[in-house]
């Protein structure tokens, strides 16, 4: 029981900042610029980085990322994954705690049982 509680605390202490979470994935696509003289017309295209996110209803939104925002987006996506992983780990620990608490016999309360909440009021 104690071990589970301290594991839970450790997971919480390691969580990255929630305000920076970003759902989606950072992808690199190869683009052709359209100039017939450019190397991309024949060979490899120009790499372009996007944040790709699937929205409700199955629509996908892609936002192109300038170089300066690539690390920001990558960090946000990593944080998002870390939060979900933590939620899954915490949920597994809490399931274990529920199982253990179910097995424990319910102790009789030491406090006298109140007859009814109404009887306490004058
Ligand atoms: Zn080109």
Question: Topology of this protein?
Answer:
Blueprint: H1 2-13, E1 25-31, E2 46-54, E3 60-64, H2 70-103
Antiparallel strand pairs: 1-2, 2-3
The structure holds zinc ion.
Topology as H/E string?
HEEEH
Mean pLDDT: 90
Taking the sheet with the most strands, its summary is: 3 strands, antiparallel
Determine Rg (CA atoms, Å): 27 Å
The small-molecule ligands in this entry are:
zinc ion
Number of helices: 2
Q: What structural class is derived from the secondary structure elements? A: alpha+beta
Measured as a percent range, the helix fraction is 25-40%
| Largest sheet strand order | 1-2-3
Characterise the protein shown here.
It is a single chain. With 122 residues, this protein is of the alpha+beta class. It has a domain at 22-83. It is 38% helix and 17% strand. It has two helices and three strands, in the order αβββα. The protein has a three-stranded antiparallel β-sheet with strand order 1-2-3. A hairpin with a 5-residue loop joins β2 and β3 (60-64). The mean pLDDT is 90. Zinc ion binds at residues 32-33, 35, 38, 40, 46.
């Amino acid at each position: 029981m104690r071990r589970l509680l301290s594991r839970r605390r450790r997971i919480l202490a390691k969580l990255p900042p929630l305000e920076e979470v970003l759902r989606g994935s950072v992808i690199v696509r190869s683009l052709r610029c359209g100039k017939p003289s450019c190397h991309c017309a024949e060979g490899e295209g120009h790499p372009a980085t996007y944040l790709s996110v699937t929205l409700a209803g199955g629509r996908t939104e892609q936002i192109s990322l300038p170089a300066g925002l690539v690390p920001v987006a990558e960090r946000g996506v990593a944080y998002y994954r870390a939060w979900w992983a933590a939620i899954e780990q915490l949920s597994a620990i809490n399931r274990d705690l529920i199982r253990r608490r179910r097995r424990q016999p319910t102790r009789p309360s030491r406090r006298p049982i109140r007859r009814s909440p109404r009887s306490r009021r004058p």
